[in-house]
Task: inverse folding
């Protein structure tokens, strides 16, 4: 079974631009969560999608948004980029068939904002 | 102002030693806990999990201990190998409608010397 894939792996943008990151979950997994990882703040939860609906949201500004498609693939978007948005953005998927399940992480997208 | 990076705890051991990595979690309502390992350039990788109705769980070479009274988790790695060198994170999940949301600890850097 293929793991979680994320594209692109690396991105360089300038302040004020916007960016879209993509995540393909493991086949059969219905939930996708996004996390931001920085040296200063560690790993922080952004949001979670299940059946095309945002089910949970972390404490990030409205510039951060996401969506999930009917095939469970997910995208996240960051508008009006700031230098502080430079981070590793991680996507995780899990079956969400009931109860607790481990989340499987992708390799991440490294975003650099100049 | 300038942000200050996290100063991750470090643990340095010799190959063959046993390692113990500790984690204090914050939410007394958390019901599910996971340990992840993250190697350089990769996403977090699941190691072992435990639910709040247990105080110990064993896997292959790893044991997780949970003390709910003092909100403390530990990960024990037996016969540590150089390939175990990585950053280790504990994560907690409150369950309920927040199954997809993990709150991560700051991480511990484990270095194993041959």
Result:
């Amino acid at each position: 079974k293929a793991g979680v894939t994320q594209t692109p792996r690396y991105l360089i943008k300038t302040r004020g631009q916007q960016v879209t990151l993509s995540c393909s979950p493991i086949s059969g997994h219905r939930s996708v969560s996004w996390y931001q990882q920085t040296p200063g703040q560690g790993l922080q939860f952004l949001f979670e999608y299940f059946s095309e609906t945002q089910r949970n949201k972390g404490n990030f500004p409205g510039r951060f948004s996401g969506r999930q498609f009917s095939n469970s693939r997910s995208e996240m978007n960051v508008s009006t980029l700031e230098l502080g948005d430079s981070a590793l953005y991680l996507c995780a998927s899990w079956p969400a068939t009931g109860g607790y399940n481990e989340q499987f992480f992708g390799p991440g997208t490294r975003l650099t904002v100049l | 102002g300038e942000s200050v990076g996290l100063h991750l705890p470090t643990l340095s051991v010799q190959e063959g030693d046993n390692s113990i990595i500790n984690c204090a979690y914050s939410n007394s309502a958390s019901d599910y806990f996971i340990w992840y390992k993250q190697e350089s350039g990769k996403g977090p990788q699941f190691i072992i999990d435990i639910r709040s109705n247990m105080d110990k769980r064993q896997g292959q070479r790893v044991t997780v201990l949970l003390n709910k009274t003092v909100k403390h988790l530990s990960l024990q790695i037996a016969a540590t190998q150089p390939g175990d060198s990585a950053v280790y994170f504990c994560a907690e999940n409150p369950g309920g409608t927040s199954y997809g949301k993990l709150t991560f600890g700051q991480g511990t850097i484990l270095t194993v010397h041959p």
Notes: The two ends of chain B are 42 Å apart (CA to CA). Chain B touches chain A through 31 residues (CB under 8 Å). Chain B has no helices and ten strands.
